[in-house]
Write a structure and sequence with these properties.
This protein is an alpha+beta fold and 257 residues long. It has five helices and nine strands; from the N terminus they run H-H-H-H-E-E-E-E-E-H-E-E-E-E. It has two domains: 64-160, no CATH class; 173-257.
Length: 257
Protein backbone atom coordinates (compact mmCIF):
# COMPACT_ATOMS: atom_id res chain seq x y z
CA UNK A 1 0.00 0.00 0.00
CA UNK A 2 1.09 3.65 -0.48
CA UNK A 3 0.91 6.47 2.07
CA UNK A 4 -1.36 9.21 0.67
CA UNK A 5 0.79 11.95 2.28
CA UNK A 6 4.44 11.08 1.66
CA UNK A 7 3.90 8.44 -1.02
CA UNK A 8 6.04 5.93 0.91
CA UNK A 9 5.46 2.33 -0.14
CA UNK A 10 4.34 0.41 2.94
CA UNK A 11 3.43 -3.24 3.66
CA UNK A 12 -0.26 -4.12 3.31
CA UNK A 13 -2.09 -3.74 6.59
CA UNK A 14 0.10 -0.88 7.93
CA UNK A 15 -1.97 1.37 10.20
CA UNK A 16 0.55 4.28 10.67
CA UNK A 17 3.05 5.45 8.07
CA UNK A 18 6.62 4.77 9.35
CA UNK A 19 7.91 7.87 7.54
CA UNK A 20 5.38 10.66 8.25
CA UNK A 21 3.31 9.02 11.01
CA UNK A 22 0.00 9.51 9.13
CA UNK A 23 -2.75 7.24 10.38
CA UNK A 24 -3.93 5.06 7.59
CA UNK A 25 -7.46 3.70 7.02
CA UNK A 26 -7.99 0.08 6.03
CA UNK A 27 -9.56 -0.28 2.61
CA UNK A 28 -12.56 -2.51 2.13
CA UNK A 29 -12.33 -5.23 -0.41
CA UNK A 30 -13.95 -4.62 -3.76
CA UNK A 31 -16.71 -7.08 -2.98
CA UNK A 32 -17.95 -5.12 0.04
CA UNK A 33 -17.10 -1.74 -1.42
CA UNK A 34 -19.36 -2.29 -4.41
CA UNK A 35 -22.20 -3.90 -2.51
CA UNK A 36 -25.39 -1.88 -2.34
CA UNK A 37 -28.52 -3.11 -0.57
CA UNK A 38 -31.45 -3.11 -2.88
CA UNK A 39 -34.69 -1.64 -1.62
CA UNK A 40 -38.07 -2.98 -2.60
CA UNK A 41 -39.84 -0.44 -4.80
CA UNK A 42 -42.74 1.26 -3.06
CA UNK A 43 -46.02 2.14 -4.71
CA UNK A 44 -44.87 5.66 -5.50
CA UNK A 45 -41.87 4.39 -7.44
CA UNK A 46 -43.72 1.50 -9.17
CA UNK A 47 -43.48 1.74 -12.96
CA UNK A 48 -46.52 3.15 -14.72
CA UNK A 49 -48.58 0.96 -17.02
CA UNK A 50 -47.48 1.20 -20.57
CA UNK A 51 -50.00 1.97 -23.33
CA UNK A 52 -49.57 -1.60 -24.52
CA UNK A 53 -50.56 -3.11 -21.14
CA UNK A 54 -53.58 -0.80 -20.87
CA UNK A 55 -54.66 -1.79 -24.37
CA UNK A 56 -54.37 -5.49 -23.47
CA UNK A 57 -56.55 -5.05 -20.38
CA UNK A 58 -59.13 -3.14 -22.42
CA UNK A 59 -59.26 -5.96 -24.96
CA UNK A 60 -59.85 -8.50 -22.18
CA UNK A 61 -62.68 -6.39 -20.73
CA UNK A 62 -64.33 -5.97 -24.13
CA UNK A 63 -64.04 -9.71 -24.80
CA UNK A 64 -65.66 -10.53 -21.43
CA UNK A 65 -68.58 -8.19 -22.16
CA UNK A 66 -68.97 -9.73 -25.60
CA UNK A 67 -69.16 -13.23 -24.12
CA UNK A 68 -71.84 -12.11 -21.65
CA UNK A 69 -73.84 -10.42 -24.43
CA UNK A 70 -73.69 -13.58 -26.57
CA UNK A 71 -74.85 -15.72 -23.63
CA UNK A 72 -77.84 -13.44 -23.03
CA UNK A 73 -78.70 -13.46 -26.74
CA UNK A 74 -78.59 -17.27 -26.85
CA UNK A 75 -80.97 -17.48 -23.88
CA UNK A 76 -83.39 -15.04 -25.52
CA UNK A 77 -83.28 -16.94 -28.81
CA UNK A 78 -83.87 -20.30 -27.12
CA UNK A 79 -86.86 -18.96 -25.19
CA UNK A 80 -88.19 -17.39 -28.39
CA UNK A 81 -87.76 -20.62 -30.32
CA UNK A 82 -89.72 -22.56 -27.69
CA UNK A 83 -92.67 -20.17 -27.93
CA UNK A 84 -92.39 -19.88 -31.71
CA UNK A 85 -92.64 -23.65 -32.07
CA UNK A 86 -96.10 -23.58 -30.51
CA UNK A 87 -97.19 -20.62 -32.66
CA UNK A 88 -95.80 -22.30 -35.77
CA UNK A 89 -97.68 -25.51 -34.97
CA UNK A 90 -100.95 -23.62 -34.48
CA UNK A 91 -100.54 -21.70 -37.75
CA UNK A 92 -99.86 -24.93 -39.59
CA UNK A 93 -102.91 -26.67 -38.11
CA UNK A 94 -105.23 -23.71 -38.79
CA UNK A 95 -104.79 -24.35 -42.50
CA UNK A 96 -106.77 -27.58 -41.94
CA UNK A 97 -109.85 -25.83 -40.53
CA UNK A 98 -112.81 -27.38 -42.37
CA UNK A 99 -110.83 -30.52 -43.21
CA UNK A 100 -111.26 -33.93 -41.60
CA UNK A 101 -109.26 -35.04 -38.59
CA UNK A 102 -107.77 -37.93 -40.57
CA UNK A 103 -106.49 -35.65 -43.33
CA UNK A 104 -105.16 -33.16 -40.77
CA UNK A 105 -103.08 -35.82 -39.03
CA UNK A 106 -101.89 -37.53 -42.21
CA UNK A 107 -101.03 -34.39 -44.17
CA UNK A 108 -99.50 -32.30 -41.36
CA UNK A 109 -97.50 -35.14 -39.80
CA UNK A 110 -98.29 -33.64 -36.39
CA UNK A 111 -99.03 -36.18 -33.67
CA UNK A 112 -102.31 -35.27 -31.96
CA UNK A 113 -103.57 -36.69 -28.68
CA UNK A 114 -107.07 -36.78 -27.12
CA UNK A 115 -105.60 -35.88 -23.70
CA UNK A 116 -102.78 -33.92 -22.10
CA UNK A 117 -99.95 -35.23 -19.93
CA UNK A 118 -100.95 -32.50 -17.48
CA UNK A 119 -104.03 -33.22 -15.38
CA UNK A 120 -104.85 -29.55 -14.92
CA UNK A 121 -105.11 -29.10 -18.70
CA UNK A 122 -107.51 -32.04 -19.00
CA UNK A 123 -109.63 -30.54 -16.23
CA UNK A 124 -109.77 -26.96 -17.47
CA UNK A 125 -109.42 -26.74 -21.26
CA UNK A 126 -112.21 -27.78 -23.61
CA UNK A 127 -110.78 -29.60 -26.64
CA UNK A 128 -111.06 -32.73 -28.74
CA UNK A 129 -107.36 -33.15 -29.62
CA UNK A 130 -104.15 -31.40 -28.75
CA UNK A 131 -100.37 -31.20 -29.16
CA UNK A 132 -98.19 -29.74 -26.40
CA UNK A 133 -94.60 -28.93 -25.52
CA UNK A 134 -92.38 -31.47 -23.80
CA UNK A 135 -91.18 -28.89 -21.27
CA UNK A 136 -93.32 -27.42 -18.53
CA UNK A 137 -93.69 -24.14 -16.67
CA UNK A 138 -95.07 -23.37 -13.22
CA UNK A 139 -98.08 -21.09 -12.84
CA UNK A 140 -98.94 -20.40 -9.20
CA UNK A 141 -97.02 -23.55 -8.29
CA UNK A 142 -98.93 -25.77 -10.76
CA UNK A 143 -97.18 -27.42 -13.71
CA UNK A 144 -98.43 -26.60 -17.23
CA UNK A 145 -96.90 -27.22 -20.64
CA UNK A 146 -94.95 -24.19 -21.89
CA UNK A 147 -97.34 -24.09 -24.83
CA UNK A 148 -100.42 -26.00 -25.97
CA UNK A 149 -102.37 -26.21 -29.24
CA UNK A 150 -105.92 -27.58 -29.18
CA UNK A 151 -108.36 -28.60 -31.90
CA UNK A 152 -112.15 -28.81 -31.75
CA UNK A 153 -114.20 -30.88 -34.18
CA UNK A 154 -117.80 -30.76 -35.32
CA UNK A 155 -120.13 -33.73 -35.36
CA UNK A 156 -118.70 -35.00 -38.67
CA UNK A 157 -115.09 -34.96 -37.40
CA UNK A 158 -114.02 -31.82 -39.21
CA UNK A 159 -111.77 -29.19 -37.61
CA UNK A 160 -113.72 -26.07 -36.61
CA UNK A 161 -111.10 -24.16 -34.61
CA UNK A 162 -107.44 -24.24 -33.51
CA UNK A 163 -106.23 -22.48 -30.35
CA UNK A 164 -102.67 -21.73 -29.24
CA UNK A 165 -102.07 -21.29 -25.50
CA UNK A 166 -98.89 -19.65 -24.22
CA UNK A 167 -98.61 -20.41 -20.49
CA UNK A 168 -95.26 -18.62 -20.27
CA UNK A 169 -97.07 -15.35 -20.99
CA UNK A 170 -98.79 -15.61 -17.61
CA UNK A 171 -95.50 -14.73 -15.90
CA UNK A 172 -95.94 -17.45 -13.22
CA UNK A 173 -99.28 -15.96 -12.18
CA UNK A 174 -102.69 -17.28 -13.24
CA UNK A 175 -103.89 -13.67 -13.59
CA UNK A 176 -101.03 -12.78 -15.93
CA UNK A 177 -98.69 -9.80 -15.57
CA UNK A 178 -99.54 -6.81 -13.37
CA UNK A 179 -100.34 -3.57 -15.21
CA UNK A 180 -100.92 -0.03 -13.95
CA UNK A 181 -104.37 0.25 -15.52
CA UNK A 182 -106.79 -1.50 -17.87
CA UNK A 183 -105.83 -2.15 -21.46
CA UNK A 184 -107.67 -0.10 -24.03
CA UNK A 185 -107.77 0.27 -27.80
CA UNK A 186 -110.02 3.30 -27.74
CA UNK A 187 -109.58 5.29 -30.92
CA UNK A 188 -108.23 2.36 -32.95
CA UNK A 189 -110.13 2.20 -36.22
CA UNK A 190 -111.62 -0.93 -37.75
CA UNK A 191 -109.26 -2.50 -40.25
CA UNK A 192 -106.09 -1.36 -38.45
CA UNK A 193 -103.18 -3.73 -39.08
CA UNK A 194 -102.37 -6.28 -36.38
CA UNK A 195 -98.76 -5.11 -35.94
CA UNK A 196 -99.88 -1.59 -35.04
CA UNK A 197 -102.45 -2.90 -32.56
CA UNK A 198 -99.92 -5.27 -31.01
CA UNK A 199 -97.56 -2.39 -30.27
CA UNK A 200 -100.35 -0.60 -28.38
CA UNK A 201 -101.04 -3.63 -26.17
CA UNK A 202 -97.38 -4.42 -25.43
CA UNK A 203 -97.90 -7.76 -23.61
CA UNK A 204 -97.93 -11.29 -25.02
CA UNK A 205 -101.28 -12.97 -25.64
CA UNK A 206 -102.30 -15.85 -23.41
CA UNK A 207 -104.18 -17.51 -26.27
CA UNK A 208 -104.83 -17.15 -30.00
CA UNK A 209 -107.93 -18.82 -31.40
CA UNK A 210 -108.17 -19.42 -35.16
CA UNK A 211 -111.58 -19.92 -36.79
CA UNK A 212 -112.64 -19.93 -40.42
CA UNK A 213 -113.49 -16.20 -40.56
CA UNK A 214 -111.80 -14.61 -37.54
CA UNK A 215 -108.83 -14.74 -35.15
CA UNK A 216 -109.25 -13.97 -31.45
CA UNK A 217 -106.38 -12.87 -29.22
CA UNK A 218 -106.92 -13.11 -25.46
CA UNK A 219 -104.65 -11.35 -22.97
CA UNK A 220 -104.62 -11.94 -19.22
CA UNK A 221 -103.50 -9.32 -16.73
CA UNK A 222 -104.47 -7.69 -13.45
CA UNK A 223 -104.35 -4.20 -11.99
CA UNK A 224 -105.18 -2.28 -8.81
CA UNK A 225 -108.70 -0.85 -9.18
CA UNK A 226 -110.17 2.28 -7.58
CA UNK A 227 -111.15 0.29 -4.48
CA UNK A 228 -107.58 -0.82 -3.97
CA UNK A 229 -108.33 -4.43 -4.94
CA UNK A 230 -106.29 -6.46 -7.41
CA UNK A 231 -108.70 -7.10 -10.28
CA UNK A 232 -108.02 -9.90 -12.76
CA UNK A 233 -108.95 -9.13 -16.37
CA UNK A 234 -109.24 -10.68 -19.80
CA UNK A 235 -108.69 -8.44 -22.78
CA UNK A 236 -110.22 -9.96 -25.91
CA UNK A 237 -109.22 -8.60 -29.32
CA UNK A 238 -110.89 -9.84 -32.50
CA UNK A 239 -109.43 -9.61 -36.02
CA UNK A 240 -110.71 -10.87 -39.34
CA UNK A 241 -108.92 -13.75 -41.05
CA UNK A 242 -106.48 -11.24 -42.60
CA UNK A 243 -105.52 -9.88 -39.15
CA UNK A 244 -107.35 -6.58 -39.58
CA UNK A 245 -108.72 -5.19 -36.31
CA UNK A 246 -112.46 -5.63 -35.67
CA UNK A 247 -113.24 -5.11 -31.97
CA UNK A 248 -111.98 -5.47 -28.38
CA UNK A 249 -113.35 -5.65 -24.84
CA UNK A 250 -112.21 -6.00 -21.23
CA UNK A 251 -113.85 -8.70 -19.13
CA UNK A 252 -113.51 -9.02 -15.35
CA UNK A 253 -112.61 -12.57 -14.38
CA UNK A 254 -111.61 -14.68 -11.42
CA UNK A 255 -107.89 -15.64 -11.30
CA UNK A 256 -108.38 -18.98 -12.99
CA UNK A 257 -106.71 -20.32 -16.13
Amino acid sequence: MICPRCKEVLPDGTEICTVCNKKLTKRKSGLFRNFRKKKAPDSASAPEQTPKSRKTKLKIAVFALLVIAIAVLVIVLVVGMISNKGEKTAKELKSYIGDTLVNTINDSGISLSPESKFRVVNQSAGFDYLVESEDDVKVDGVHYPEWLVTLNLNNVERVVDVTFYNFEALDNNARGPKLKSTLSLKGVKDGTDYDKVKDLIDIDPYSVKYESNQITFTYKYYYKNASGDMQAMKFVVIYDDKLNYQSSENVEVNPEI
